[in-house]
Design goal:
Length: 69
């Protein structure tokens, strides 16, 4: 796993939608599940959302705490 991708999860914010402006690491699990069912967007945002979905699904959100500034 790329550490820089984990760091990006606590930096990048959702650019649109109901959770616009919220840090990707703070998106609720139900929204990440919905995105997984509907399809993640293309590009870096989609890759980061898919990574956050995996982290949330496996109960690993706490591993992002040390990366928050």
């Amino acid at each position: 796993m790329d550490l820089s991708a984990l760091e990006r999860l606590v930096i990048v914010t959702m650019p649109y939608g109901k959770f616009r402006g919220r840090c990707l690491a703070d998106l609720p699990g139900h929204y990440l599940n919905w995105l997984a069912r509907e399809g993640f967007p293309e590009g870096e945002l989609g890759r980061l959302l898919a990574l956050m979905h995996e982290i949330d699904h496996n109960g690993l959100r706490d591993m992002l705490a040390p990366l928050r500034h």
